[in-house]
């Protein structure tokens, strides 16, 4: 009697270069792909609204891809510690495979499941699929985690080269009778009352086929100009791969090797993959990254009482600062924002409005389609000056100078905040004075320095 294999998919919503799926297919037994919407396990952070929209569409795409190859996707909702063993018992599975996760709550769940299922006689294996370099494999000479990017990435590049991506299976043998699957629509991942996702749908097509097409287009059309124009928000040369990598619609191994095999020089592009690796390295060793300052000295930072009006103005793109407002409106409309503008908008919140970086991290978590548990808080702490390899607190991005340098003709601002066009724009003034607020931020930074002595 055949005993099917369960492939528990998580942030790896693809068929190609999916080691867990390949291992299951190699057993020559029926394969059941399972996705668990776990919003109940301790420590699991509920997805933000934009991420939930993306997940719905990506699961639709994955189900279609699996079906084309003969497989099936089963959807279940609940605590993974309950759902996975229940499906094992229901299906009579003999093996469970998954690709590794690196957040502390997820690792705790996975380790307990692996121990329990193996005790029941199952073949349970996990694989490296979503990071080029697993966090525990890269250490300083003293055996400690890195806290500065350049030596971290140098150590990665001196390690064995990332493995080649695996081909997707041509045929996935599904079970004769598939287990019952919950209705994706019943999960309520898509927004209603109102449906604010129109801009996301115009901007993105989630799923593995679109991810692979975007990678090919970027390497063919945009990589050659990436180093020159990557900081210009109107240039349109960014890869657009961050949500694809966040949801695992394409693997970093595929991106790495196809970039190296292409005609254009990779330049700084692969270093951006390295920054993503560094974020996960940091989260693995500092699980409280979204809640606590990585640098304890910043616990003494004298945040003033929250001004709700200032926070709302920032969230809605109504600060009176053209580049900041353009970026925040792009975020709300499309679920993404150019990386240079992300730094500017984050710096403005923390260092001009003196609002705790955790407020900004929460907003980005809810509105970014590519927000993940590592990169989102890691980048906020970098801007705030409280994190790994942090920008010094006295480095305050002046949004007016940033606009002059990277959007000199106003194309980006004109697209997203058109009321600022022209010399006689009819707008209210900035909600804070940039010079005075910068001085207040520097005073606060000096307070942190004195408190740490």
Descriptive notes:
Its cofactor is FAD. GO terms for molecular function: deoxyribodipyrimidine photo-lyase activity; DNA binding; FAD binding. FAD binds at residues 226, 238-242, 269, 370-372. The chain is mostly helical. The protein has 3 domains: 5-129, 3-Layer(aba) Sandwich (Rossmann fold); 131-164 and 207-285, Alpha Horseshoe (Serine Threonine Protein Phosphatase 5, Tetratricopeptide repeat); 296-451, Orthogonal Bundle (DNA Cyclobutane Dipyrimidine Photolyase, subunit A, domain 3), CATH 1.10.579. The chain is built from 19 helices and 5 strands. A 5-stranded parallel β-sheet has the order 3-2-1-4-5, with helices on both faces. α2 links the parallel β2 and β3. α3 packs parallel to α4, α13 (322-334) packs across α14 and α15 (357-367) packs antiparallel against α16. The longest helix has 20 residues, at 49-68.
Quick gist of this model?
This protein has 453 residues and is mainly alpha-helical. The protein has helices at 19-26, 49-68, 80-91, 104-119, 149-158, 198-203, 208-222, 226-229, 242-246, 252-261, 269-285, 308-316, 322-334, 339-352, 357-367, 375-384, 399-406, 411-416, 434-451; strands at residues 5-9, 31-37, 73-77, 95-99, 123-127. The chain folds into three domains: 5-129, Rossmann fold (3-Layer(aba) Sandwich), CATH 3.40.50.620; 131-164 and 207-285, Serine Threonine Protein Phosphatase 5, Tetratricopeptide repeat, CATH 1.25.40.80; 296-451, DNA Cyclobutane Dipyrimidine Photolyase, subunit A, domain 3 (Orthogonal Bundle), CATH 1.10.579.
